[in-house]
Amino acid sequence: VSFHPLYLVSSTCLGRWDLEVFLVWSCQQDEESFRRAVWEKNLQMIQDHNSQADLGIHTYKLGMNHFGDLINERLDCLLPDMNLATRKNVVTFKSSKNPQIPTEVDWRAKGAVTEVKDQGNCASCWAFSATGALEGMHFKKTGKLVSLSEQNLIDCSEENNGCRGGFMHLAFDTVQKEGGINSEENYPYDGLVIHYSSAAFGLRQQ
Q1: Residue 185 — φ and ψ, nearest 5°?
Q2: Rounded to whole angstroms, what are the CA distances from 198 to 27, 160, 161, 193, 201?
Q3: Which residues have CB under 8 Å from 71's CB, separation 6+?
Q4: Engineering a disulfide at 187: which of 14, 71, 75, 182 sits with its beta carbon 3.0 to 4.6 angstroms away?
Q5: Does position 51 have pLDDT exceeding 50, yes or no?
């Protein structure tokens, strides 16, 4: 039978502060072991997926990041609750009956897509979706790929809710009203709602 000698120390032999430190230490060891196991499981999942991607089963690859040791329930707790009003009077897009489009297209291969970005602990996916679409549009028109500022939209799109969610069409309305949007370089992302800071536009309305 194996044992850890620290577990045999009686509480009567420890001062109150020492006992509290020991209990915190014990919980930390359990937490570290648990999160290590979660990380190893996620790493194996990533490796299995990427092996299948090499065989053509998937069209994308995965990578480890700083969320790799978290289960979904804990990850959900990191993001704020979204506060979105229900949309009404939605217009359905109707395409032409015989559209002449290719069966597939990879804009990454054409250089029209920026590197993967991290929204952090901010429900700002709406801003990232909007800038991604605008970056691709700008590339198609100019041949230049410019990373645009999600932070600009979070701070200035008044009809959206910053880090508590929003809609892409309202982000586009903001860009149109302001006459452009800042570049990521001039207006970097910090995942907080702050006051607008003017800088050179990365894309101007034309």
Answers
A1: -60, -40
A2: 47, 20, 20, 15, 9
A3: 38
A4: 182
A5: yes
pLDDT, tens digit, for every residue of 53-104? Answer: 999 999 899 999 888 988 888 777 776 666 666 566 667 777 778 888 888 8
Residue-wise pLDDT for 109-131, tens only, equals 999 999 989 998 888 999 999 99
Q: Are 167 and 128 in contact (CB under 8 A)?
A: no
Three-class SS string for 3-51? CCHHHHCCHHHCCHHHHHHHHHHHHHHHHHHHHHHHHHHHHHHHHHHHH
CB-CB contact of 183 with 149 (8 Å): yes
Q: Bridge-partner residues for 176, per DSSP?
A: none
**CA–CA gap between residue 52 and residue 60 (Å, rounded):** 10
CATH number 3.90.70.10 is the correct assignment for the domain at 74-93+109-201: yes
Q: Is the dihedral of CA 45, 50, 55, 57 positive or negative?
A: positive
pLDDT of residue 101: 84
In terms of Cβ atoms closer than 10 Å to its own Cβ (0-12, 13-18, 19+), residue 56 is exposed
